[in-house]
Write a structure and sequence with these properties.
CATH architecture: Orthogonal Bundle
Shape: globular
CATH superfamily: lambda repressor-like DNA-binding domains
CATH class: Mainly Alpha
Structural class: mainly alpha
Strand content: under 5%
Strand order of the largest sheet: 1-2
Distance between the termini: 29 Å
Order of helices and strands: HEHHHHHE
Helix content: 55-70%
Number of strands: 2
Radius of gyration: 13 Å
Length: about 110
């Protein structure tokens, strides 16, 4: 299995900026950014995907899917992560600041 390309906080921030700068900010965009923010915070805290999986009561494969945007991360999982790591909810919710969430127009 290959490692993710985005391993440094500044690389993750750039990816977040690209997604967030698109004209239509959809739920898919939101969840993709939340997955990237999860990866960034996990790396900052020196946690493995297995560590985070235990916190969220999912498999490490599910964490991989959250982080790469394949699967949506639900707010209850975000809350579990925040509570167990001392991360403020604003870390994730700030994603919405200044943005209007629009309905997905495609399938």
């Amino acid at each position: 299995m290959r490692k993710s390309i985005l391993q440094k906080p500044e690389e993750i921030d750039r990816a977040i900026d690209v997604i967030g700068s698109k004209p239509n900010f959809t739920a898919q965009s939101l969840y993709h950014i939340w997955g990237l923010k999860l990866r960034k915070r996990r790396l900052e805290l020196d946690l493995t995907q297995t560590d985070v999986a235990k916190i969220m009561h999912v498999t490490f494969q599910q964490i991989q899917k959250f982080e790469n945007g394949t699967n949506r991360i639900s707010f209850d999982k975000v809350a579990m992560f925040c509570q167990q790591t001392g991360t403020g909810y604003g870390y994730f919710l700030s994603t919405l600041s200044g943005r209007t969430l629009v309905t997905n127009t495609g399938g």
